[in-house]
Every structure is written in C-alpha cells, then in structure tokens.
Amino acid sequence: MKKSAFCEYCFSEREYQVYKVRRTSILKEEEVSYKAKEAVCNVCGNEIFVSDICEYNLMNLYKEYRRNYNIISTDEIEKVKIKYSINSEALSLILGWNSKTIERYLDGDMIGVSNSDLLRKVYENTSYYSIILQNNKERINPVDYNKSRQAIRYILDQDETEEKIDAVIKYLLIRCEDFTALSIQKLLYYVQAFHYVFTGNFMFEEDCEAWKDGPFYPSLYERYEQFGYEKVNKDIMANDKLRLENFERNIVESIIKFYGCYSGKILKEMTKSEAPWILTRTNSINGKNIKYGEFNTVIEKSLIQEYFDSIKEKYNISSLLDIQNYSRDSFDKISI
Q1: Exposure of 140 by Cβ count < 10 A (0-12 exposed, 13-18 middle, 19+ buried)?
Q2: Where is the Antitoxin SocA-like Panacea domain positioned along the sequence (predicted)?
C-alpha cells in the first residue's frame, strides 16, 4: 500500500518513501544521537511531516536520552514517594522545585539529568534524604513533614536490623539454595538463640514474633510477601556489603549442620515445642486462632535468654558441637 502525506514544498498530497537515518538532537541541554526515520517526497525529494514517524522519532529520542544519562523512570519516582511517605507536591518543594514538578514528571514530561540524579540519590540514600527534609521542612506543612520523618526513622531502624539478618540469609543461601522461606525463619531463630548462648548477646536487634507457624521475623516476612522469595534472595545475594564475623559464621555453620538437615515443617514443630513460643502464645493470645500480625505477639528476648540458659546448663553446652545433642532431642520429641 502506497503512503501519502501533504508536502509543504509541493503544496499538495504526495506519495513518499521512508528511510532509516541517524539523527542528533538537543534534549534538556544534552546532545543525543538516536535512530530515526524520515519521509521523503517522491516528487521534490524534500522531507515530509508524518505524525506517526514524528512520534516514532520522539519515542526513540526519549529512549536514547534515558539510556545515555540513566534517567530515573516514573515507576522509580513513585517508589521515592512510597518509600518516604510523601506526596508529589511536598517532595517537589523540599527538593527546591516548583510544587507541580514531580506531577509533571509522572505525567510524562522529560526530566533533566541533574534532577534525575538528585531523585535517584534521594531514593538510594535515606540519610541524604533525611538531611534535605530537615533543611527544607519549612516549605511543607507539619503533617507532611512528620509523616515523612516517621518513615525515615523506620527505614533507618530496619536497615540496621536487616543488614545482619540479610548477612545470615546470604550465608545460608550460599551453603544451600534449597532452604525455604519457612526454614530460613526458623534457622534465624536458632542462630539468634545460640549466638546468645555462646556470647551473652543477641545477633539481631529485631524481635521475632510467635505466629501460629512458630517464630517469625516480621520484617523478613513482609519483604517476602511484597517482593517475592526469589527477588528478595537475589537482592541479598547481590549485596557485597553483607559480611559475618568469624565467630558469627561459625555459629551459622553449626546451625546449618544441626538444624539445616530438617525441613521447614519439622523446624516449625521443634520451635513450637519450646517455652518461648508456648509462653508467648499463651500469654498474648489466650489460645485464640489468629491471623498473622493481628496481635502483638513479640517473643521477648528475656524469654529466649531464660530458656536457652536452662538448655545450656541441661545439655552442658560448652562448644558448638554440643548443639547437636539438643537438636536431636528436640527432633525425637516431636517424632514420638
């Protein structure tokens, strides 16, 4: 099918040919070279305006610009808002922009390199965002400021907590890729408990909770629920900053050896047979069948201390190899 369009040089409708060309344009003060098309009049040989080709060229220009300068996407801008619990207007104002700037970007306006870099830095560096928010809090209303401030505190607390938990998960996954989300939760619990037995301190700041399937670390559960088991683990494995101290690594290795041989379902029953989980469920829930997170069911660290102090004494645990005696007995009890 022959194509035709109005040629302003011939001043009439003309058939045209389409050629692939390489063009260079200036976008947001940056020079961009990109693949383009041009329609050429069959009669006069001049370029003809064709709306579909113009849209194609503009799309390729924007695509190449985003790729060349690593421009933040609209999805990533939305993630900034969600991460810091802040609306488009308030975010624009604390960054020193017009109140409608973020909304324009979300509606498709092309963002400049410097603004894109700033948004990306804000997203990746919570401490940096915290400074910006604090320095520019007078530009937004107190409600928006306090809401975002609370989000920052939560993120910073979680980052500190998750880093050590993630380091243990990374080691678990390196040693064995077959661990399930359920078994990882229970192995983390035993790492926490036996780290206390041998050091007198807990490895994780975060408290676990007594859910119906045993002890759970809620921040990890929420991440798996939101992003999926494979995605979270992939991100953890790619994080080169996650490290364990030598003794921490030895603790985790012992837990893998003496508990990693059991399935998640067996580990669940083993943890549910222990006093910290039983006492917490009894005291907090009074025997009701509840949904995850419906009540505050934190297993107090003092309960873990008391119980595993008694286990240390009963089984005469003085070395990491002694963990095996207790793990075997726990398995035998639930197998009877």
Answers
A1: buried
A2: 184-277
